[in-house]
């Protein structure tokens, strides 16, 4: 039986001009039918052009007024995060579902806002990504499952996984293609060296996922 292993992949700083085929061919080489492609959410979002620079935004009265009503521990109390959410999901939709989401949270139901406004979900406000993305608000990729299936179709892998990296060697599974178990992928990638900072490793390959 072939040995299951995780191979970290260093790339150049990815942009919206990159394609999965060119990245795989230049940075990975051969992808086998038993392999799973793993990519950080930040890198996937950048390739989708899902990021925004605060200096490019022009928050209006509605953004300024609503964010001041929120407690300091709410990330949307930041004017530019609020403005970026409204730009992605729509102003009134953002306000409506944020209010409903906070009420639902009091009853123990989390993430109601992001369920109804998935395009407004962001990875982080000020990232550790390399320039020119280090001061950007980067959204999460969308839609994640469709993106994973697209990667599989284009590169011929067994599956694909999009992960979020908050800390070195800690990952959260954002989505997988249909053949991949999120629980198993999380276990395998628990110690994978993902990084968006100076050690730029936005991708990894799980070799022999099927046989291992």
Largest sheet: 5 strands, mixed
Name the helix and strand elements from N-terminus to C-terminus, one letter apiece. EHEHEHHHHEEHEEHE
Number of strands: 8
Number of helices: 8
Structural class: alpha+beta
Strand order of the largest sheet: 1-8-2-6-7
Radius of gyration: 18 Å
> Into which percent range does the helicity of residues fall?
25-40%
Which regions contain 5 or more consecutive residues with pLDDT less than 50?
A: none
How far the N terminus sits from the C terminus, by CA atoms, comes to 7 Å
| Tertiary shape | elongated
How much is the average pLDDT? 85
% residues in beta strands: 15-25%
Describe this structure in words.
The protein has helices spanning 20-28, 41-47, 61-68, 79-89, 91-106, 112-116, 144-155, 182-188, and strands at residues 5-9, 36-40, 51-52, 122-124, 137-139, 159-167, 170-176, 203-207. The protein has 212 residues and is an alpha+beta fold. The strands form two sheets. It has a five-stranded mixed sheet with strand order 1-8-2-6-7, with helices on both faces. It has a three-stranded antiparallel sheet with strand order 3-5-4. Strand 6 (159-167) and strand 7 form a beta hairpin. The longest helix has 16 residues, at 91-106. The chain is elongated and about 60 Å long. The termini are close together.
């Amino acid at each position: 039986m072939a040995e299951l292993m995780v191979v970290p992949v260093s790339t150049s700083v990815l942009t919206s001009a990159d394609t999965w085929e060119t990245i795989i061919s230049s940075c990975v080489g051969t992808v086998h039918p038993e392999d799973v492609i793993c990519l950080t959410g930040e890198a996937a979002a950048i390739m989708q052009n899902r990021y925004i620079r605060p200096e490019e935004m022009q928050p209006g009265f509605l953004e300024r007024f609503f964010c001041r009503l929120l407690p300091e521990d709410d990330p949307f109390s930041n004017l530019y995060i609020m403005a970026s959410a409204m730009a992605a999901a729509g102003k009134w939709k953002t306000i409506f579902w944020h209010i409903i989401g906070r009420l639902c949270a009091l009853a123990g139901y989390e993430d109601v806002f992001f369920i109804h406004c998935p395009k407004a979900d962001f990875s982080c406000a000020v990232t550790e990504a390399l320039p020119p993305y280090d001061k950007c608000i980067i959204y999460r990729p969308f839609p994640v499952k469709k993106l994973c299936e697209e990667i599989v179709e284009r590169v011929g892998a067994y599956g694909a996984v999009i992960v979020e990296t908050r800390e070195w060697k800690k990952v959260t599974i954002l989505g997988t293609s249909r053949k991949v178990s999120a629980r198993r992928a999380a276990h395998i990638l628990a110690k994978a060296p993902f990084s968006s900072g100076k050690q730029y490793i936005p991708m990894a390959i799980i070799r022999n996922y099927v046989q291992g």
